[in-house]
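Input record (one chain):
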Amino acid sequence: MTKRLLPMLCLGVLLTFVVGSRVRAQDGGGAGPVEVEGATAAGDTTPAGAGGATTAPTSTQSGVPLRSDLVQQDLSGDLPRIFPLGDSITEAFSPGQSYRYWLWRDLKAAGLDADFIGSRSGVALGPPAIPHFDRDHEGHSGWTAQMLLYHVAYEPPAEMPDVALVLCGINDLKLGASVELTLARIDLLVEVLQFINPEMTILLGATFTPAWDPWVDQLAPQLAAGVCMLAQAQDEARSRVFCVELGDGFDATVHTWDGIHPNAQGEQKLATRWMKHLQPVLEGKVARTFVHGTGVAGASGMPELSLRAPPILGTTVAVEVAPVLPGAPSVMLFGAEGLDVPAPWGGGLMVDAQLFLSIPVVAPALSIPLVVPADDALVGLSFHLQFLQHDTAAPAGVSASPGLEVQLGSL
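The corresponding structure, as predicted from the sequence alone:
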């Protein structure tokens, strides 16, 4: 029991230090400790002068971008890339604007900059009434989820998306596909997007109920409910997937011009729903993880760090490491900042370590439970981890995981 509780206790100490020092630096106050299952986190154990972490190198220095480096790049013009993907509701028809215009305007009003990407521009059948916005998108009128799946798989976007806004499935139903088949296609589409970028955030639109075709209108609520269940099943710490319920407050007899395609009022309503989920993503308030750098393989392969679930406030998650070599001396590095500098073992040092935790390894995988308090002061705060293990099969006798950044969030 002692061997099991030791890693959890030390993890709590480190998180208390990281959270406490950052919150105090921001507002002069304190934050409740992050607790680990089976133990109470200790108080602040920061030694004098330990708050000054080494400045992380930029991607031009290390060759591998850190999350903090990407944020700095965003401020200088490398904006988050948003990939609007769907059918005619995403594309829209002239002289309409599409929801994309209103969403772009809402982002500007909130002080958030982003780059819409895709192989298409504007709207179908002519120019939009107001052309002065970022018009790039991947909307294809009449396309089914299956068509979008094939297109993205065989012609992936030229630029790596950070966030995908996915709305499709109605045309599948119109052409006779069942709800189950349509959901299976959307499920595969999500997997392809995650293959393109394993850290992509995906917002899945749950369609409103149209007033268009009696058969489709009857099945649309089932499709919307299934999309939300699919989003919950596909959601993971590294690639967050959210359901955007576009039908809330949407009346197809009022907010469309033909029972299915939104008019200006309907476009604004859709944009408002997308914005509700997109804004916290762009503001860094979403719980998630980021992997950076590369590891070093040993006898069992390269150890990888992960979280079984997103580190959402008020929940319990597990810090997992696999594969590991049972019985071999092992250490977990913890710190508030990430690094990527050459290390003696042949890989990279990924953490500006403030705590070195010796971990007893008795199985081929490790799992350390972690309880994150429901404290809004923790939203957006992050810490970094890296696992090292003595392994004679590794090139320099040490196997190492890539770095893992854990970002705490409210959703």
